[in-house]
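A quick aside before the break. I want you to see a complete sequence-to-structure record at least once, exactly as it would be stored in a machine-readable document. Don't worry about memorizing anything.
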Amino acid sequence: STRITMPDGAVLEVKIPEGARDGQIIRLRGKGGPGMGDGEPGDALLTLIVAEDPDWRRDGDDVITILPISLDEAVLGAKVRVPTVEGAVMLSVPKGSTSGKTLRLKGRGFHRKDGTRGDQLVTLMVDVPSGDAALETFVESWTGGGNPRAGMGV
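That is the input. The structure line, written in tokens, reads:
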């Protein structure tokens, strides 16, 4: 719910429906200005403007978030807490995960008109620590990994 002030100064409490989208129009019956001829109040039309959020993005009925994970969580796999629109849940990060890998939390997205829900898509972003001497020493002596760009011909 939100409060709006009408042009005549009246304050209304308006319920925004679940799953509302940017640009959606909400009709408030009988809350507009007087109509032509009969003088009866018309309908007020509200156009929703949904603000951007730094942590969440919408794709249809799905919600997308980027989740930073540590290097050891990516390499070894882990169970990590991930925020959802209804509170944090545990997510299993598979061994060998890389930045850009997307995992799905079924039914954690936006509500649809039919009562079902979209999903939450969690894109992993590996946070490589800087200034970790032990890690730098290990990587300098590491001979594995190969060329990740070999498939691109470079």
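Two observations worth writing down. The longest helix spans residues 133-141. The chain has a mean pLDDT of 91. We'll return to this after the break.
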